[in-house]
Amino acid sequence: MFLTDLLPPLAQLTPVEQDHLDQARQMQAMSFAVHIPLVCFGVAFPALVVFVEWLHLRTGDPLYRRLARRWTRVMAALFAVGVITGTILSFELGLLWPQFMASFGDVFGLGFAIEGFSFFLEAIFIGIYVYGWDRLPPKWHFASGFPIIFTGFLGSMMVIAVNAWMNNPGGFRLEDGEAVDVRPWQALFGNDYLWHELVHMYVAAYIVVGFVVAGAYAWGKLRHGRWGRYERTALAIPLTVAAFAAPVQLLVGDWAAREVATHQPVKLATLEGLQRTTEGAPEHILGWYDKETGEIRWGIEIPKLLSLLAFHDPNATVQGLDSVPPDDRPGPVNTVRFAFQTMVGIGTALALLAVVTLWVRWRRRGLPRSRWFYRALVVAGPASVVALICGWVTTEVGRQPWVVYEVMRVDAAVTGAGGVPVGYALLALVYLGVGLGVWWVLRRLAAAPLGGAGDPMEVAAARGPGGADADGETAGGTAGGS
């Protein structure tokens, strides 16, 4: 028997009397905005750490071992923070949206079960990896990093699969307003909407991690003049990864936009502020949607470009906002438009920076020397995080007013309990405390000696004859390089 067999038919689920729906949505959005960058580090950063350790095994260069060990500490610290934010998100789903969880839990519950199992395995192998540096044979320690990469991928894939299902629900039938004939595997993995979301998110993860880590070392070069071989290597590896990923994301973004045009045409109309269904629809760059007239003000209009991008046909018909009743339109329209255009603008700028990076490295066999390049890297780190969050705002706000697209509305899923504003305020304080804690931990890790206090093997490996650093500098001269 399915859980929904014990519930009222969905047709009887009327909007819940809740005076704080907007606060509940904002509370969930704040948690996503805090957690999603940590997901990127959970997905992409372990792969960078394991890659650097492989470089050490292949070359015997102690610099790579030292870098991998320092990044391991950062990886463990961010995983611990991700545990906090992920746990909060899990509780919020049940506390803020009980009707959604109760009505459809047996459809997508398998995904969350696999995600939880992956999380526990990931925690186990992170513990083995962190404490196994001097306790396991080098090849076995290297091998212990692969389960971290796999479980990070698998767990986040399950969450993305649930989100894809919310955007394009399937794997069940509605009979008299009730979900029956539930097929969880089909709902999660037979969903055409999953694959572009999955690829889009994973490419974004490597872009964010690559530019954030490279930006940290670029900041050290500009602010403190730290630029030994250690710093150059620590910047070049993540920057190269991000430089390859950023141009690819433009192609993936085109794929994602065409899937949205097919499965969620009203969301596409919201992204572009297209009021009326139009053949050969234009694209507006920038501008403000005027809800009174349904026109874009102060935007740059490019004729037929929207039809060309969405359907690869300049004369294709694009569905407008007027195709559905006002209550079924996403909104606010300008919030979705601003988030989407910010994501695209930053993504394009990062792709251009990536092309410059790859061109200079190919032509000169080294990193660019201009200070402006490193200033751009410092900006690129936080900008990539902003683009990431804007992408999720586009996805989630663009699906409104539905929590399950065209099946259940958000106002039917929200809790009827009071106290949401109090919980909102407390959660903001929790995240403020967590943010300060992360800043303090990362500052302590950055200030630690390169060899690591109390780690004579690392200190010996890091130093050459006469106490010199392995890359020709004293360990103290490059301390805090990460």
UniProtKB/TrEMBL annotation:
Domain of life: Bacteria
Gene Ontology CC: one annotated term: cytochrome complex
Gly residues: compositionally biased ranges: 464-482
Transmembrane segments: 32-55, 76-97, 109-131, 143-166, 199-220, 232-252, 338-360, 372-394, 422-442
Name of protein: Cytochrome d ubiquinol oxidase subunit I
Stretches the record annotates as Disordered: 461-482
Family: Belongs to the cytochrome ubiquinol oxidase subunit 1 family.
Gene Ontology terms describing biological process: aerobic electron transport chain
EC number: 1.10.3.-
Gene Ontology MF term list: electron transfer activity; heme binding; metal ion binding; oxidoreductase activity, acting on diphenols and related substances as donors, oxygen as acceptor
Keyword list, A-Z: Cell membrane, Electron transport, Heme, Iron, Membrane, Metal-binding, Oxidoreductase, Transmembrane, Transmembrane helix, Transport
Organism encoding this protein: Conexibacter arvalis
One Pfam short name: Cyt_bd_oxida_I
InterPro entries (UniProt xref): Cyt-d_ubiquinol_oxidase_su_1
Membrane topology annotation: Multi-pass membrane protein
Phylogenetic classification of the source organism: Bacteria, Bacillati, Actinomycetota, Thermoleophilia, Solirubrobacterales
Chief location category: membrane
Location of this chain's protein in the cell: Cell membrane
